[in-house]
Write a structure and sequence with these properties.
Number of domains: 2
Bound molecules: uridine-diphosphate-N-acetylglucosamine, phosphoenolpyruvate
InterPro entries: Enolpyruvate_Tfrase_dom, Enolpyruvate_Tfrase_sf, MurA_subfamily, RNA3'P_cycl/enolpyr_Trfase_a/b, UDP_GlcNAc_COvinyl_MurA
Distance between the termini: 10 Å
Subcellular location: Cytoplasm
Largest sheet: 5 strands, mixed
Radius of gyration: 22 Å
Oligomer: single chain
Pathway: Cell wall biogenesis; peptidoglycan biosynthesis
Number of helices: 13
CATH superfamily of the largest domain: Enolpyruvate transferase domain
EC number: 2.5.1.7
GO molecular function, one term: UDP-N-acetylglucosamine 1-carboxyvinyltransferase activity
């Protein structure tokens, strides 16, 4: 584990520019979608992150040829020879990501059967897959849970269906989309998630030949088609990474320009950022020395130099405040004067990381109650899903163990904001969703080194 430890010498504001590429939560799904086509697909601006490696591995096991294109981050997927893979081979990827569950529909369409390994992803709640399984069964799939994973077949093919999600789950919405596009007949999905990454996946599928209508009130209608072709797509930029750097600027009293960040997908975050006192400026065109095709402008985020203000916020499905923004922003809230309240309504166990912040001098208390907002699914149950943050707190160095992706980034920010040298263990987990984060930190003037 020694190469998985970062010594962080904190206390220096982060200043400079970083670039975000295609969104983790779209890129991996677009890669799965390539399985549905009968000709090659090209995806641009793919970040070098662990989730992309996992999906690449799974695609290759199923006969998809994955190659690099001419431009940096360009990947080409050739699905001409999709084939079965053994459970042993697939299980190499068990526990590494949540994306394998999305192979169900595409593999059933291409092969008539599928094997899905145990899922990974962040440990921020139980993260059941019951909606996925119910939906797949309604399409006509036979789903068998086995100790080594999940086996699926579709002896009578997959047929369009009407399905209402009990909660607008991102993954389950994607599951329905990726299955319905080639299912026979029409599918109506109610209470669908409408995150920007889902809208971008719909763009990908439409480029492939799918017929998908997004109605008002979270209703999505999909008319199954007989065949799909390949796509050529430049993904939306990673709004979660962009917000993470924004939070880092605020927490360290710095000034970070996030090239590639797009205002449209970050409106809710920007409102909260401004309410805390953070300053930002949206630039719609690239500075003269930046010449990247298809990606324009960015957002500069900076600390105002005066005191930050406490806020109350509630995470929610889009267009609410994204749960993945929560952990990095809380570090900045430890620096705001007054009492901030954060009500996490998407995951029941996403506040455990606050203990590490307390060990650094923060004052954060978690509660089972739904504080400061609307009662949610987790109220009156045994989940500490609301946090009260009293600030400002002077953070000091500590030894920290990274529990998951976003908490990991928040630990890093806290260590950078703190006086002294912290040791952050398990930093490689951050690579699952942040491309070249150590290089980016160095470019921003952070004083960090591998131990
Ligand atoms: C790879 C990816 O895109 N990950 C994102 C995706 O995760 P993911 O797609 O896993 O998240 P979901 O939107 O499905 O989960 C939201 C809530 O629904 C619950 N649920 C979900 C499915 C199900 O079958 N049963 C069920 O109860 C979950 O436990 C959770 O409480 O959306 C989340 C919410 O924006 C983000 O935090 C993740 O970064
Ligand atoms: C929860 C997250 O991701 P995943 O669904 O991949 O675990 C995240 O990106 O913050």
């Amino acid at each position: 584990m020694t190469d998985d430890v970062l010594a962080v010498h904190g206390g220096t504001p982060l200043n400079g520019r970083v670039r975000v590429r295609g969104a983790k939560n779209l890129v991996s799904k677009a890669m799965v979608a390539s399985l549905l086509g009968d000709s090659p697909s090209t995806l641009y601006d793919v970040p070098a992150i662990r989730d992309v490696e996992v999906v690449t591995g799974l695609l290759e096991l199923h006969g998809v040829r994955v190659s690099r294109g001419e431009s940096d981050g360009e990947l080409i997927f050739d699905p001409s020879n999709v084939e079965s893979a053994s459970t042993d081979e697939i299980n190499v990827h068990a526990g590494s990501s949540r994306i394998p569950i999305l192979f169900c529909g595409p593999l059933l369409h291409r092969l008539g059967h599928a094997f899905i390994p145990d899922l990974g992803g962040c440990h921020i709640g139980p993260r059941p897959i019951d909606f996925h399984i119910q939906a797949l069964r309604q399409f006509g799939a036979i789903v068998d849970k086995a100790p080594e994973g999940m086996h699926l077949t579709a002896p009578n093919g997959l047929h369009g269906t009407k399905f209402e999600l009990p909660y607008p789950s991102v993954g389950a919405t994607e599951q329905v989309l990726l299955t319905a596009v080639l299912a026979e007949g029409v599918t109506e999905l109610r209470n669908a998630a409408v995150e920007p990454e889902i809208m971008d996946l719909i763009c990908v599928l439409q480029k492939m030949g799918a017929i998908i209508t997004v109605h008002t009130d979270r209703v999505i209608e999909i008319k199954g088609v007989k065949r799909l072709g390949g796509y050529s797509h430049r993904p939306i930029p990673d709004r979660i990474e962009a917000a993470s750097w924004a939070a880092a600027a605020l927490a360290t009293r710095g000034d970070i320009t996030v090239l590639g960040a797009q205002q449209a997908d970050m409106g809710t975050f920007l409102n909260v950022f401004r309410s805390i006192g953070g300053q930002f400026e949206v630039t719609d065109t690239l500075p003269p020395n930046e010449t990247r095709p298809g990606r324009e402008g960015g957002i500069r985020f900076w600390h105002p130099g005066t005191e930050l203000t406490a806020v109350a916020l509630e995470t929610d499905v889009h267009p609410g405040f994204a749960t993945d923004w929560q952990q990095p922003l809380v570090v900045a809230l430890t620096q705001a004067r007054g009492i901030s309240i954060v009500h996490e309504t998407v995951y029941e166990q996403r506040l455990g990381y606050t203990e590490a912040l307390n060990s650094m001098g923060a004052t954060i208390q978690t509660y089972r109650d739904c504080l400061g907002g609307t009662p949610c699914r987790f109220g009156r149950r045994n989940f500490h899903h609301s946090a009260v943050i009293a600030g400002p707190s002077k953070l000091h160095a500590a030894d920290l163990v990274i529990p998951d992706l976003r908490a990991g980034f928040s630990h890093l920010i806290a260590a950078l904001a703190a006086e002294g040298t912290s040791r952050v263990y398990g930093v490689n987990l951050i690579k699952r969703g942040y491309e070249n984060f150590e290089t980016k930190l160095a470019e921003l003037g952070a004083n960090v080194e591998r131990v």
